[in-house]
């Protein structure tokens, strides 16, 4: 087994930091992890073992084509304009990276996740897989694309950016 590169170590740290920032509700820190053109997508299940494949033509659980969509979502969370997310849950993001590969100058990070949440005296959790496309920039690695597959998609309450 070859030793981990500095870039791979930075990728692991970024993934861990992302969950931590969401748990701390550090919205500015979290948004800063994303490139302006970053895509954020949670496809829907189109059958027992098939997912939707086109966020522009098929249903998605969440889809933002760039960071401006994420910024708008954070604005609604901060200002209380998201009634479905009031009050915000307490969350705990757990990730286990399965592999990191290189592709076209970017790093592809594939992982399993579980997010536990507690809101209005109820516990809930979501679990599944995530794929992050990380791009090296002058400011360090940034998220160019994040795709989240929610394996337990029977959603008992709000599913939002802090839920996965």
Question: What does this protein structure show overall?
Answer:
- The protein is an alpha+beta fold.
- It has one domain: Nuclear Transport Factor 2, Chain: A.
- Helices cover 22% and strands 43% of the residues.
- It is built from three helices and six strands.
- The chain has helices spanning 6-23, 27-31, 67-79; strands at residues 34-43, 60-64, 90-103, 106-119, 122-137, 140-150.
- The chain has a six-stranded mixed beta sheet.
- The chain is globular.
- The model has no long low-confidence stretch (mean pLDDT 95).
Core attributes:
164 residues, 3 helices, alpha+beta, six-stranded mixed beta sheet, 22% helix, single chain, 43% strand, Nuclear Transport Factor 2, Chain: A
């Amino acid at each position: 087994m070859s030793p981990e590169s500095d870039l791979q170590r930075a990728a692991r740290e970024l993934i861990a930091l992302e969950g931590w920032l969401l748990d701390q509700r550090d919205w500015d820190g979290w948004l800063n992890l994303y490139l302006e053109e970053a895509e954020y997508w949670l496809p829907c299940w189109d059958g027992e073992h098939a997912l939707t494949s086109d966020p522009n033509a098929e249903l998605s659980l969440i889809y933002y084509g760039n960071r401006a969509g994420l910024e708008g979502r954070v604005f609604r969370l901060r200002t209380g304009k998201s009634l479905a997310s009031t009050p915000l849950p307490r969350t705990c993001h757990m990730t286990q990276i399965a592999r990191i590969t290189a592709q076209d100058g970017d790093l592809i990070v594939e992982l399993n996740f579980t997010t536990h949440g507690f809101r209005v005296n109820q516990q809930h959790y979501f679990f599944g897989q995530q794929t992050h496309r990380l791009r090296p920039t002058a400011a360090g690695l940034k998220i160019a694309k994040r795709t989240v597959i929610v394996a337990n998609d029977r959603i008992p309450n709000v599913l939002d950016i802090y839920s996965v």
